[in-house]
Automatic annotation (TrEMBL):
This is Ferrochelatase. It comes from Oceanisphaera arctica. HAMAP family: Ferrochelatase. Belongs to the ferrochelatase family. Pathway: Porphyrin-containing compound metabolism; protoheme biosynthesis; protoheme from protoporphyrin-IX: step 1/1. GO terms for cellular component: cytoplasm. SUPFAM superfamilies: Chelatase. Its EC number is 4.98.1.1. Fe(2+) binds at H199, E280. It is found in: Cytoplasm. The keyword Lyase applies.
Amino acid sequence: MGNKVKTGVLLVNLGTPTAPTAKAVKTFLGQFLHDHRVVDLPRMLWCPVLHGVILPFRSPKVAKLYQSIWWEEGSPLMVVSRRQQAGLSAALQEAGINMPVALGMSYGEPSIGTAWQELKDAGVDRVIILPMYPQYSVSTTASVFDSWARLMKQERCLPAFRFIRDYHDHRGYIQALAESVRDHWEAEGRTDLLLLSYHGIPKRFEDQGDPYGHQCHRTSELVAAELGLERHEWRTTFQSRFGREPWLQPYTDETMKALPGEGTKSVSVICPAFSADCLETLEEIAEQNKEIFMEAGGEAYHYIPALNDNPAHIRMMMDLVCRELV
Ligand SMILES: C=CC1=C(C)c2cc3[nH]c(cc4nc(cc5[nH]c(cc1n2)c(C)c5CCC(=O)O)C(CCC(=O)O)=C4C)c(C)c3C=C
Ligand SMILES: [Fe+2]
Ligand SMILES: [Fe+2]
């Protein structure tokens, strides 16, 4: 009987519909928007709005948006996440480290439970949990932890585990983002402004102690410093507002509308909070916001893709994981 500890990696991202249809989007949004970490309103108030208005009316509209960005192999977020899983697994193997890598999603399949079962079947009794959110937020990272804790409640013999809380200022992450911008500017030409657009959260969450906004600003400062940009050459904004209460500001769409009038005619946009391209980058940023900017008098608009499975991103993931081996 060997009692050697075997370590495995649990990569986690948000999840995505299984198909670009109203039915699949409704199932996905239903699970996502029932999470108390995402919407913290009392259920007596929220459930009638969710079931009576949001799910029936938003699902068909959002399904059309998913149709516009869907890839042959599936939803971009899922396709890219699988590539990241394969890339990290190959990089570990090449380094002579025998460590299974499983992929779990907060909402939908493969669930975090499915991924944990895979790791258990591989004999893992020590887990490194890597939520693919560079900036910590209660709505994303803490929700991953909740799912993990719920799973652990069912185990008699708990595995050892490490939880990577955030990596918003990790050197490899900052360098990978800066390299992406530099490569893009070399290929497409430099623009007046680099706009770093982050998924927003309700302002109330920040007031209650969520460090997400501060971490986003820190990431921007570090990327700008790495690129040697002057203060007027970059800006931070927040996108993907949901619901009526104020979210973190300035908003990306309002900024896009104002920029050409302020003399900024060309802009490059990067979305550092998204480790994988998804609806919110490929549709909202690469399409919707481009239209807003160009209609307001902009002349050139470039979306710089997420880090996805870039070799520099996989190297950074490898470093994050290997730091937890000591
Ligand atoms: C990158 C980090 C993310 C944070 C922080 C976040 C907070 C947050 N999101 C919503 C509501 C929605 N988000 C939706 C899509 C979506 N969100 C993230 C990431 C973060 N969300 C990703 C990667 C995606 C894309 C998924 C995909 O399938 O491509 C959606 C669904 C689309 C829509 O209906 O518009 C909603 C809704 C809230 C309320 C919130 C913080 C409280
Ligand atoms: Fe409900
Ligand atoms: Fe979101």
